[in-house]
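for the writeup, i need someone to sanity check this before i put it in the appendix. the sequnce is what the collaborator sent (i think, or maybe the updated version? ugh). structure was predicted straight from it, no edits. if anything looks off just tell me and ill rerun, i have time this weekend
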Amino acid sequence: MTPITRPRLAARREDSAGSTAEPSGGVSGLIWLTWRQHRWTLVGTLVLAAALVGWMTYLSTELTDLYHQCHNMLCPDQSPQGDRLTGSSGLSLTLGVLLLLVQYMPMLIGVFVGVPLLSREHEQRTLLLAWSQDVSPARWLWAKLSLLGLFVAAVTAAVAGVSDHLEHAVANVSKASSMFEHETFLNTGMLPLAISVCWFAVGVALGAAIKRTLPAVFGVVAGFVGLTQLVQYRYLTLMKPLAANLRLGGPGDGLLRDNALVVKGGMINYGDGPSNVFDAAGRQLTGAELERLCPSDNGGAGPDPSCYLNHQLQLHVQYQPGSRIPEFHLIVAAGYLGLAAITLAAVWLIVRRTNLSAG
């Protein structure tokens, strides 16, 4: 009995060991590994995002209440509601800080979530251990990217939804010129989600390429600032602006209402050269001609609006109508997601060519 029983027990131990080792290379094992390595970053991100969402939700509710108190119109400056918005204890400063955090949230995600994914493995020289087990480098990479990417997408989607609602509430009660303004535009729609996913991917790529955390962090910060400035100065020209001539001195024709934004023009030049003002026949006046026709000084009171109206003068503008905001959201989001796809492809190539013997 004994010689027969021992091999069976040994076989059971081998089977048991094999069944125990298998999950470590499976999905559950990779989930546990990702949580173990990034738990403090994930918990910290979740707590900060929850605080941000809660605070913005509260302010959105308060701003909506103020809007109803002002009879669904802009609140007058001297009213209690206006003082609540812009006074010494008003909401303007708090709103500015919160919305600035939303705008810089993608950079923070790239720095704290994206960069350490591979740079920390290189610095601690743990790649040899991680990739020489039963999990291939490609499977290890895509599992971690999927898990962390889904987390980033879920968190930033919640922030983006609340931020969009808050920006609309701010526009209702304040004298914000347009939802097309750069700072407001980037905080609306699902742009915070797309931009955050992009900079998460860029952070991973820089960490994989540079293999050091601090230089990769500086790369994310510099890249974020540079690309944000480029988008700020170029995004309004992604579609050809519309052109119009607006009556001066009158109420206007409403073309620049409803979140429209002037791209070019809209300024009267009284110096040398063209004034950007046209007469009734459609001829552009020079600055000198306009000065003689409607003096800019006017006894220190500035140009007389009735002078513009009496001479049927018009101001030429190029503008983007507010109805195009969803299209611009799609174009900008597609650009950021395209950049994310390119950087993820670069990460895959870098991982494939990584020398395991060098860690």
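The mean pLDDT is 81. The beta strands are 242-247, 261-265, 274-278, 284-286, 314-320.
thx in advance!!
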